[in-house]
Amino acid sequence: MDSSRLARTTSPVEPAYLDESSTYLVKIVVAGGLGVGKTTLIRAVSEMRSVHTEEVMTAASMSLDNLEFTPEKTTTTVAMDFGRITLDPGDTILYLFGAPGQRRFKEAWDDVSHGAKGVLVLFDVRRLDASFEALDMVERSGLPYCVAVNRFPTSPDVSPEVLRDHLDLDADTPVVSCNALDFTSSLDALIELVRHALTRIRLDAAS
Ligand SMILES: Nc1nc2c(ncn2[C@@H]2O[C@H](COP(=O)(O)OP(=O)(O)O)[C@@H](O)[C@H]2O)c(=O)[nH]1
Ligand SMILES: [Mg+2]
Question: Fewer Cβ within 10 Å of end Cβ, the chain: N or C?
């Protein structure tokens, strides 16, 4: 799969209808800490108008949710984001669900991740710890996942090897870099995740 061969089949603001010949419907979760870019990524890749449940942050959550690097952020996802993207039109459709990354939303994570085939775990390298709780929930779920570093303008360069070491990832867990604002870049990260999930499914079937 190559994202350069994929084009938006519809404008993100127009209603989009599924191709009747579509075969595989794949549920994917986008996870990560507050402000790492989950909503942004789903909005960037979705071929339909994506759906986001956001709530104005309360003073009570200010002490829990660190906004040092995203001071403009006044909303926090309390339930989920939803979007859809067709890979190889007529073949595979990804349903994208954004899950809140804070452990206190564990119940929401359990609901949102149910039936998922893979998880894209977003990280902001300026504050890796923001996604630790999310990574922990993902690892406990046993779902295949891919780590995606969302590059912000002030992000320092961190090599995938250093990150793999720091996060103590398995050797086969993909580590990719993306820009959540960019369609192609975000799609490439999702395609890497789908490749990884397919490999896991094949390996499990063979064993
Ligand atoms: N420059 C830049 N800003 C980003 C990027 N991803 C997210 N943002 C901004 O960071 C803030 C938090 O992103 P958001 O998607 O709401 O994070 P979420 O809490 O994980 O859903 C928003 O103001 C975004 O516009 C990125 O790749 N580059
Ligand atoms: Mg969000």
Answer: C
Ligand closest to 31 (CA) is 1
Atom of ligand 1 nearest to the CA of 152: 28
Crossing angle of helices 183-206 and 38-45, rounded to 10°: 100
Number of domains forming the structure of the chain: 1
What's the CA angle centered on 35, arms 173 and 125, to 5 degrees? Answer: 50
Mean pLDDT of 76-90: 76
Integer Cα distance of 121 and 198 in angstroms: 17
Ligand 1 atom closest to 101 (CA): 20
CATH code: domain of residue 76 = 3.40.50.300
In angstroms, what is the span from residue 19 Cα to ligand 1's centroid?
31
Domain span at residue 43?
Answer: 3-206
Ligand 2 centroid to 61 CA: how many Å?
Answer: 15
CA distance 37 to 179: 9
pLDDT at 154: 96
Residues having CB within 6 Å of any atom of ligand 1: 32, 34-40, 70, 72-73, 77, 150-153, 179-181
pLDDT tens digits, one per residue of 17-60: 655 665 789 999 999 998 999 999 999 999 988 888 865 555 54
The residue with tokens 């984001």 is 81
